[in-house]
Amino acid sequence: MSVARTSILVGMAAVTGLSLVALPAAAEPAQRQVPAPNGRYGDLFGTEGMLFKVRHRTIIDPQVMLTVECQHSDGTSSQVAFGPTTSDDSRRFRIPRNGNGRFSWTEETDGSLLDNAEVEIGYTFRAHRTTLASVLVTASYSETDPDGTRWTSDCRGEMPFRLTWGPLQPGR
Protein backbone atom coordinates (compact mmCIF):
# COMPACT_ATOMS: atom_id res chain seq x y z
CA MET A 1 0.00 0.00 0.00
CA SER A 2 1.37 3.39 -0.88
CA VAL A 3 2.11 6.05 1.72
CA ALA A 4 -0.41 8.42 0.14
CA ARG A 5 -3.13 5.78 0.21
CA THR A 6 -2.32 4.87 3.85
CA SER A 7 -2.50 8.49 4.96
CA ILE A 8 -5.87 8.90 3.19
CA LEU A 9 -7.24 5.80 4.98
CA VAL A 10 -5.88 6.98 8.35
CA GLY A 11 -7.44 10.43 7.76
CA MET A 12 -10.79 8.86 6.83
CA ALA A 13 -10.67 6.64 9.92
CA ALA A 14 -9.95 9.65 12.11
CA VAL A 15 -12.84 11.63 10.59
CA THR A 16 -15.17 8.62 10.86
CA GLY A 17 -14.11 8.02 14.45
CA LEU A 18 -14.75 11.63 15.39
CA SER A 19 -18.14 11.62 13.81
CA LEU A 20 -19.03 8.39 15.62
CA VAL A 21 -18.06 9.99 18.90
CA ALA A 22 -20.07 13.13 18.14
CA LEU A 23 -23.11 11.27 16.80
CA PRO A 24 -24.52 9.93 20.08
CA ALA A 25 -24.49 13.39 21.66
CA ALA A 26 -26.33 14.87 18.69
CA ALA A 27 -28.75 11.94 18.57
CA GLU A 28 -30.02 12.42 22.15
CA PRO A 29 -33.77 12.98 22.18
CA ALA A 30 -34.85 16.58 22.62
CA GLN A 31 -36.49 17.48 25.93
CA ARG A 32 -40.23 16.80 25.72
CA GLN A 33 -42.34 19.90 25.73
CA VAL A 34 -44.75 20.06 28.67
CA PRO A 35 -48.24 20.93 27.41
CA ALA A 36 -49.62 24.39 28.19
CA PRO A 37 -53.05 24.36 26.49
CA ASN A 38 -54.70 27.59 25.44
CA GLY A 39 -57.31 28.67 27.96
CA ARG A 40 -58.00 30.53 31.18
CA TYR A 41 -56.24 29.43 34.35
CA GLY A 42 -57.32 30.55 37.77
CA ASP A 43 -58.04 29.90 41.40
CA LEU A 44 -60.14 31.84 43.89
CA PHE A 45 -59.97 31.27 47.63
CA GLY A 46 -62.20 33.74 49.46
CA THR A 47 -60.84 37.21 48.69
CA GLU A 48 -57.54 35.87 47.34
CA GLY A 49 -57.00 34.59 43.85
CA MET A 50 -55.19 34.74 40.55
CA LEU A 51 -56.19 34.49 36.91
CA PHE A 52 -54.41 34.54 33.54
CA LYS A 53 -54.90 33.49 29.93
CA VAL A 54 -52.61 31.25 27.91
CA ARG A 55 -52.42 31.53 24.14
CA HIS A 56 -49.65 29.90 22.06
CA ARG A 57 -47.50 29.10 25.13
CA THR A 58 -47.68 32.71 26.34
CA ILE A 59 -49.17 33.83 29.66
CA ILE A 60 -51.28 36.93 29.03
CA ASP A 61 -52.67 39.48 31.49
CA PRO A 62 -52.00 37.86 34.88
CA GLN A 63 -54.19 39.30 37.65
CA VAL A 64 -53.78 38.84 41.39
CA MET A 65 -55.75 39.53 44.59
CA LEU A 66 -53.92 38.80 47.83
CA THR A 67 -53.84 39.77 51.50
CA VAL A 68 -50.50 41.28 52.49
CA GLU A 69 -49.16 41.87 55.99
CA CYS A 70 -47.61 45.29 56.59
CA GLN A 71 -45.10 45.89 59.39
CA HIS A 72 -45.01 49.56 60.40
CA SER A 73 -42.05 51.43 61.87
CA ASP A 74 -44.02 52.12 65.07
CA GLY A 75 -44.10 48.36 65.80
CA THR A 76 -47.70 47.77 64.73
CA SER A 77 -48.88 45.68 61.81
CA SER A 78 -51.93 45.55 59.59
CA GLN A 79 -53.37 43.46 56.81
CA VAL A 80 -54.11 45.06 53.46
CA ALA A 81 -56.15 43.57 50.65
CA PHE A 82 -53.90 43.95 47.59
CA GLY A 83 -55.50 43.94 44.16
CA PRO A 84 -57.02 43.12 41.94
CA THR A 85 -54.07 44.12 39.81
CA THR A 86 -54.88 46.16 36.74
CA SER A 87 -55.79 44.36 33.53
CA ASP A 88 -52.99 44.72 30.99
CA ASP A 89 -52.98 42.63 27.79
CA SER A 90 -49.44 43.86 27.05
CA ARG A 91 -48.23 41.91 30.10
CA ARG A 92 -47.06 38.72 28.33
CA PHE A 93 -44.63 36.01 29.43
CA ARG A 94 -43.39 33.05 27.36
CA ILE A 95 -43.75 29.54 28.87
CA PRO A 96 -40.51 27.52 28.47
CA ARG A 97 -40.48 23.94 27.13
CA ASN A 98 -40.16 22.40 30.60
CA GLY A 99 -43.25 24.30 31.83
CA ASN A 100 -41.48 26.01 34.75
CA GLY A 101 -40.93 29.73 34.95
CA ARG A 102 -41.05 32.99 36.87
CA PHE A 103 -41.94 36.53 35.94
CA SER A 104 -42.50 39.79 37.75
CA TRP A 105 -43.69 43.34 37.25
CA THR A 106 -44.26 46.51 39.24
CA GLU A 107 -47.92 47.30 39.88
CA GLU A 108 -48.01 51.08 39.97
CA THR A 109 -51.39 51.30 41.65
CA ASP A 110 -54.21 49.01 42.69
CA GLY A 111 -57.32 49.22 44.86
CA SER A 112 -55.27 49.14 48.09
CA LEU A 113 -52.88 51.62 49.65
CA LEU A 114 -49.86 49.92 48.08
CA ASP A 115 -48.32 51.83 45.20
CA ASN A 116 -45.38 50.40 43.23
CA ALA A 117 -45.79 46.89 44.60
CA GLU A 118 -43.52 44.19 43.16
CA VAL A 119 -45.53 41.18 42.00
CA GLU A 120 -43.66 37.93 41.32
CA ILE A 121 -45.30 34.76 40.03
CA GLY A 122 -43.70 31.35 39.76
CA TYR A 123 -45.53 28.58 37.89
CA THR A 124 -45.32 24.94 36.89
CA PHE A 125 -47.31 23.43 34.03
CA ARG A 126 -47.32 19.64 34.38
CA ALA A 127 -48.37 17.03 31.84
CA HIS A 128 -51.84 15.64 32.68
CA ARG A 129 -51.86 17.31 36.11
CA THR A 130 -52.97 20.53 37.78
CA THR A 131 -50.99 23.67 37.03
CA LEU A 132 -49.36 25.18 40.12
CA ALA A 133 -48.48 28.80 40.79
CA SER A 134 -47.23 30.91 43.68
CA VAL A 135 -47.56 34.66 44.11
CA LEU A 136 -45.35 36.99 46.12
CA VAL A 137 -46.22 40.66 46.59
CA THR A 138 -43.82 43.07 48.31
CA ALA A 139 -44.05 46.82 48.81
CA SER A 140 -42.57 49.54 50.98
CA TYR A 141 -44.07 52.94 51.57
CA SER A 142 -43.88 55.85 53.94
CA GLU A 143 -46.20 58.64 55.01
CA THR A 144 -46.11 61.68 57.24
CA ASP A 145 -48.79 62.14 59.90
CA PRO A 146 -50.45 65.54 60.38
CA ASP A 147 -48.21 66.11 63.44
CA GLY A 148 -45.09 65.71 61.23
CA THR A 149 -44.13 62.20 62.34
CA ARG A 150 -42.82 60.12 59.43
CA TRP A 151 -43.39 56.37 59.45
CA THR A 152 -42.62 53.55 57.04
CA SER A 153 -44.20 50.22 56.24
CA ASP A 154 -42.82 47.06 54.69
CA CYS A 155 -45.48 44.78 53.26
CA ARG A 156 -45.33 41.18 52.12
CA GLY A 157 -47.88 38.60 51.06
CA GLU A 158 -47.52 35.23 49.41
CA MET A 159 -49.77 32.35 48.53
CA PRO A 160 -49.67 29.13 46.51
CA PHE A 161 -52.44 28.33 44.03
CA ARG A 162 -53.68 25.18 42.25
CA LEU A 163 -55.01 26.56 38.99
CA THR A 164 -57.99 25.13 37.16
CA TRP A 165 -58.26 25.34 33.37
CA GLY A 166 -61.19 26.69 31.36
CA PRO A 167 -61.65 27.43 27.64
CA LEU A 168 -60.99 30.85 26.18
CA GLN A 169 -64.06 32.84 25.17
CA PRO A 170 -64.35 33.23 21.36
CA GLY A 171 -62.63 36.39 20.20
CA ARG A 172 -60.72 36.90 23.45
Give structural notes.
The protein is mainly beta. It folds into 2 domains: 1-30; 39-166. The protein has one helix at residues 3-26; strands at 39-45, 48-55, 58-72, 77-82, 92-94, 100-107, 117-124, 131-144, 150-166. Strands 1, 2, 3, 4, 5, 6, 7, 8 and 9 form a 9-stranded antiparallel sheet that branches. β8 (131-144) and β9 form a beta hairpin. The radius of gyration is 27 Å and the shape is elongated. The model is unreliable at 2-25 (pLDDT under 50).
Largest sheet: 9 strands, antiparallel
What is Rg? 27 Å
Helix content: 10-25%
How would you classify the helix and strand content by structural class? mainly beta
Low-confidence stretches: 2-25
Terminal CA distance: 75 Å
State mean pLDDT (0 to 100 scale).
83
Shape: elongated
Number of structural units classed as domains = 2
- Number of contiguous helices: 1
For the secondary structure, the number of strands is: 9
Strand content: over 45%
What letter string, H or E per element, gives the SSE order? Answer: HEEEEEEEEE
Supply the key terms.
172 residues, mainly beta, 1 helix, 9-stranded antiparallel sheet, disordered N terminus
Write the layout of secondary structure elements.
Elements: H1 3-26, E1 39-45, E2 48-55, E3 58-72, E4 77-82, E5 92-94, E6 100-107, E7 117-124, E8 131-144, E9 150-166
